[in-house]
Amino acid sequence: MEPLDIELEEGELELPAEPMHLNMGPSHPAMHGTVRMVLELSGETIARADVQVGYLHRGFEKMCERGTWAQVFPYVDRLNYVSPMLNNVGYALAVEKLCGIAVPDRCQWYRMALGELARISDHLTCDGAMAMELGAFTPFLWFIKAREMVWDILEEETGARLTHSFGRIGGMAEPPTPDFKKLCAAALPEILHVVEEGERLLLNNRIFLDRLENVGAISGPDAIALGWTGPCLRATGVSYDIRKVHPYLKYDEVDFDVPVGTKGDTLDRFLVRLGEIRQSKRIIEQAIARMADHGPVNCDDPRVVLPAKSEVYTTIEATIQHFKLIMEGAKVPAGEVYSYTEAGNGELGFYLVSDGSGTPYRVRIRPPCFQIVGGVAKLIEGRMLADIVPTFGSLNMIGGECDH
Amino acid sequence: MSQLVLDKLKETFGAAILETHSEFGDDTAVVDPAKWKAIAQFLRDDPALDFDMPIDMCGVDYPNRLPRMEVVMHLYSLKKRHRVRLKARVGDEDMDGAELDSVVSIWAGFNWLEREVFDMSGVRFRGHPDLRRILMYPEFEGHPLQRTYPADRTQPLVSYRTEDEAGMPLNKLEPFGHDEGMPFGRLGPHPRAEDS
Questions:
Q1: Domain harbouring A89, CATH code
Q2: What is the model's pTM?
Q3: How does pLDDT run across B172-183, given as a tens digit for each residue?
């Protein structure tokens, strides 16, 4: 029998000379559902990358121009859907700054505790999902188990696991439940224990470390010029945390550290997030220790806060006030404001323009991960195709806020 | 302290700074669109100002004013820890002449933000390396965050199924009426362009 392989004369074999184009996403398991990367490959190396977002665009800013100021809360829930409470608080603070009102101390501590719980859930999701995309499924389940404990508390407080719509202009929808402090005190050590277990599964794993170390590195000045904020910026060694530098709520009264990295690579981003989970635990413990058990949660400004239901049903003044706040919306003084808070991914800004009516004239959100994803091409060009998965996973791209 | 920024801008650019205010502690300067890039360059390079971080850029549409579109840029300085808001007003009622110089060469982070302002508000940036739509698809017509763009207008890439094609009544409702859900307290009439 003749050999099956074909004898080729030299020069006859034609290999394509042009680079190969590859579409990664939008429906690729590691692209978080909503990003498309058009890659020009030379072998397995990425020569050029075009990152395309917008697959989850829902016209958030246009929708906000149709309702009242309070009706924006359900929309901001759906911006960053792994830490919606931080968005609720960020938007509430922005409108309150425009109205010139301050909420009672008890509410500020409550907002901080809930916000830090949301931050823990955000970081756990990001780190867990990244590990899963690299094939480590067990640590993902571990982190999700810990996240479930966070969500149990949030569900107890707000009635919803994910889309809480719990913020209000001038306060929160409900005061803390009587068991809130007990729930936090019981769950936090448990969460940390689970996180440590999950961490041990990963950080002693040579393959996992090899895939993260020195992959997707960016220098501090580059990250700043791209407008990066949050854990991704801190991983480069720039210690910029809005909670420390421009404290809001009561962050200037609590004791916590800002974890920073050194190299700005994927491993640093992973470790910074794990470090922040521990700092969030410290903040929550101090917040629940200092939060009063009794006292008002909402400010007593009748222009923005709904009256108590018992009064709405018994007095005509409260009925009218309720009706006007719902049907016309709270009147926010004309003007413009930019308010910024530290969300799970970095600086979450709201630029609000009011014409003095009950409807926002313009709600502009500055989603932290829009600029971070804008820098992805820079991180992956010149790297191998397989490096996209850990690099992109460690940036915590959230389609909802990135695509508005 | 950050009044310094506005003072320095006025001192250096004089008549190109059209107005300033510091509502809620946010220092704001409305500048001449022709000097947009020069002022941005100055804000980054002056050692006392040192704005190294691009924060945000967006368009705010005022269809009853001229120029109509306000482009708003937020900057932050990591070292000096101060912020500034820069505004330029461009474009007539049909958005003709809504052009600005791109500042991507000064801060790389404005690349996507300028694309977003172009996509959403229709302002063109001269010298931008890659001015494509970013959130909407290339076939999309118009700019959704202009206030004259009707909120209930749809532009499906694949047209909706008709009852003939389906062979049955579909009872399909409009997404929402153009005044549906509007609170009573809204000022002025709802601007609405004729549907295409």
A1: 1.10.645.10
A2: 0.88
A3: 766 666 566 565
